[in-house]
Amino acid sequence: MAYPQMDADLLFNLPRRHSGANLALPLAAGGVALLVAAPLVYIFLRAASAGPDAWQRLLQSRLWLLLANTLALALAVTAGALLLGVSLAWLTERSDLPGRRWLRALLALPLAIPAYIGAIVHLALLRPRGGLIPQALASLFGQPAPLPAPVGFWGAAFVLTLFTYPYVYLLSGAAFRTLSASLQDAARTLGRTPWQTFWQVTLPVLRPGLLAGALLVALDILAEYGTVALLRYETFSSAIFVQLSGRYDRAAASVLSSVLVGVAVLALWLELRLQGKARFTQVEAAWRPAPLAALGAWRLPALLLALLVVSASLLVPLGVLLTWSVSAFMQPGTLAQALRAGSRSFGDFAWNSLWTSSLAALLAVTLSLPAALLAARHPGRLARLISRFCQVGYAIPGVVIALSLVLLVNRYLPFLYGTPLVVVLAYLLRHMPQAVRSSEAALARLSPSLEEAARSLGRTPLQTFFQVTLPLALPGLLAGGALVFLTSLKELPATLLLRPAGFDTLAVRVWSWAVEGFYVQAAPAALFLVLAALLPLSFLLRQEPIFR
User: Fold this and answer.
1) What is the pTM of this model?
2) 52 pLDDT exceeds 80?
3) Which of 250, 295, 391, 468 is deepest in the core (most CB within 10 A)?
4) What is the Cβ-side half-sphere exposure of residue 258, based on CA atoms within 13 angstroms?
């Protein structure tokens, strides 16, 4: 809704005759947008200056293979997450599925488990040589049992689908909960069959949530490094990481990064085009919940499907990590290795993860406020443009953020080089869009009349913000901060590339042990990381009526 211009001017004391005051908020928001977009611009500039030899070498060798691999994985996982997420959301929200109150929450909790930790668990369970399940079956039947190996394209697609479907599931579930039965009743009275009603009425209403969830999944796959590296499937992110950490070829890394970012920007553009200008509004007075669909003979298969997904994406990983952690604690030598690396202890790893993620969340929420205020109180082309620029972090994978910061910090901010603040800056740039969207949503829900009342009582714009706006918007701001904290806690490639010597986080320790095959040593750090991520995730879930 576009608020009257006079309300916005009254709130911020921005009369048109005072051009300096008028420019204060747009300038602050624009400065934040430039900060977030700087890595994107710099990567394209470095790629353009890489020279024709670097481009020619990559075009003739690996670029097309990497592009095909990356797009195939992104499409497969996005399709799988859409199918699984929408199906499970319908079962838990619109059917008489047994135990759906508990399944609602359990199906969302895999979002707290980084995909690379899930890959570690499933690789240890299913790998053909030495896997726990093949060994158990061989002992039971006296000969090796053929099982699909969790490596390559299909292994990566399987694991990534298991740990990304919650994006679609949560958004689809919210849409199903708010969908009024009157829409379906009207379609049925007009002669539509249940299947036609779903495709012509329900699906269009779900479209905004489905597109948003699909976009999150696709961009997450484009940025994924740990899972594809463990499961030996080469994508742009893994190739860029090798160029930076192994070959030290920054020109080739810049070229690959520019192509990857171009693909991500294309995904963002497609989502905007598919979303279009369609808006779906339900009249609250006519809203009523739809009756639950009776599954009949399908109740047991549907319940088994939901339990299978919960087991594979949540219960089995947690159970394996807990078993390994107990095993580590039972072996003093293994425990000493798991809890210490050089002069650093487990407490140091946990503290490094917590304070860097917390600082990134605090900075992201704080810096998101100018852009969110501009979008909520001064809607227009400038506000939309700045908001879009503040959200380009969605299109910049962590490994590309790391490359851009290596180049930018070395040239322009050398005092930051070799400090943990570079890691915090990477988290901030990568996850700022989450804070911007949450802040915009929180401020858009506040009526300007509340702030106008405070101004009429003699409060200054700054007093009005801290005494009225901020307390009312605080739950939404905290949700954005929790989301930034959660995703920063799980960030792996940017941390690996940017951390100073001796600065390890929980994610780094998990990775360092796992790539060597020492899963028991990696388990305590992985389990603590998952438990720490469950706290902000539970806070986020309680913002929705998912536990009812």
Assistant:
1) 0.84
2) no
3) 391
4) 18
